[in-house]
Amino acid sequence: MQGLFVSKMAASLLKNAPQVAAKPLAVIPFTIKQLALTQLTQTLLKEALEQRCLDFMQGKWVAIEITDVQLKFELSYQNGRLIVRPPQCPDVTFSARSDELLLIAAGKEDPDSLFFRRQLWIEGDTELGLQVKNLLSSLDPEKLSPIIRFGLGYSAQLLLWLQQQAATTPSLSTP
């Protein structure tokens, strides 16, 4: 019976957490989100920025849509730095749920496998989309700062555990 309770709680948390997160995100002005997203993307892509691996994005706009929390923004690389803006007219759009993006960032999930399972959608300039996807695949979470690596790793492990608990519903039937 305890297993059923844990399973139902995990399923409920996985279902409701994005909806809960979406509410405050909806009222936060984009300028505040822009500051946070700029810092987050610069942190996650620090190595790529240092190695100038983002030149292919010069003058191009990549939209990131986190579907379950209704967050969408565009990202570009200009003059050696990342620029974040509200959605306008991207060259390519990546769409996924927050849990899938977390697993990609933590190095626990491969963008290719999510794409082929139709959990990561890529629309628009296919060449640019492929370059961005390859960049995501090449990210090494071990090169992140220890505190970011810990936060991502812990969050990803918790998410994977919740998904496992939600998927293992004990049978209620008795012989």
What does this structure look like?
The radius of gyration is 18 Å and the shape is globular. It has a five-stranded mixed beta sheet with strand order 3-2-1-4-5. It has one domain: SCP2 sterol-binding domain (Nonspecific Lipid-transfer Protein, Chain A, 2-Layer Sandwich). It contains seven helices and five strands; from the N terminus they run H-H-H-E-E-E-E-H-H-E-H-H. It is 54% helix and 16% strand. The chain starts with a helix and ends in an 8-residue tail after the last helix. The model is unreliable at 171-175 (pLDDT under 50). Helix 4 (98-105) crosses helix 7 (146-167). It has helices at residues 2-27, 30-44, 46-50, 98-105, 111-116, 126-138, 146-167, and strands spanning 62-66, 71-78, 81-85, 92-96, 120-124. With 175 residues, it is α+β, with helices and mostly antiparallel strands. Pathway: Cofactor biosynthesis; ubiquinone biosynthesis. This is Ubiquinone biosynthesis accessory factor UbiT. Keywords: Ubiquinone biosynthesis.
Descriptive keywords:
175 residues; Nonspecific Lipid-transfer Protein, Chain A; 5 strands; 16% strand
